[in-house]
Amino acid sequence: MSALGELSPAERHRVVAAGFTAEVAATTDWSAPSPVPEWSARDVVAHLVDWFPTFLAAGGVNLPAVTTDDPEQAWAHHAASVQALLDGDDADRDFTHPYVGTSPLRAAVDRFYTADVFMHTWDLAQAGGRRPDLDPGFATELRDGLSSMEEVLRSSGQYGPAYAVPDDADPVVALAAFIGRDPSFVD
Q1: Do residues 121 and 113 make contact, with C-beta atoms less than 8 angstroms apart?
Q2: Fold of 4-178
Q3: Where along the chain do its domains lie?
Q4: pLDDT tens-digit profile of 96-106?
Q5: pTM score, whole prediction
């Protein structure tokens, strides 16, 4: 297991969100294309800020609304709200989502959201012409987990076709390629 994989859900989010925050701070062109077709750097941030509150609300959990279009401010507000949720007393309560069932709230945040932030860190960095410093062990863990449900992922429309990479590819590049990102987007 990777060092990141050994952390609690609250600590893992803190570390992953900090990595994404560093990419937000390094972004100078919010209209730059990302490796996600049709998405700019701004859209990568908007995706994370927009989809997760809706996911939580479906299970009766409400995050404070983000009231700005500024990507840096929106991300900072959103990330702090998610962290407060994970650090709060309700993190161990059951969370029931109509499509994914019941699990502890912290586990649902970790599985569906923190992993998404980790993967989208690649996208935001790439939009800025950078390779992000992501935990290769955690990338391997995510890829292995996603591989076990590849048919469901591909049919969801949320992931593009996988790109082929050599067997000895960097684990972060292999994860990005698996979720449909062109590993040569930035060379």
Answers
A1: no
A2: Four Helix Bundle (Hemerythrin (Met), subunit A) (1.20.120)
A3: 4-178
A4: 999 889 999 99
A5: 0.94
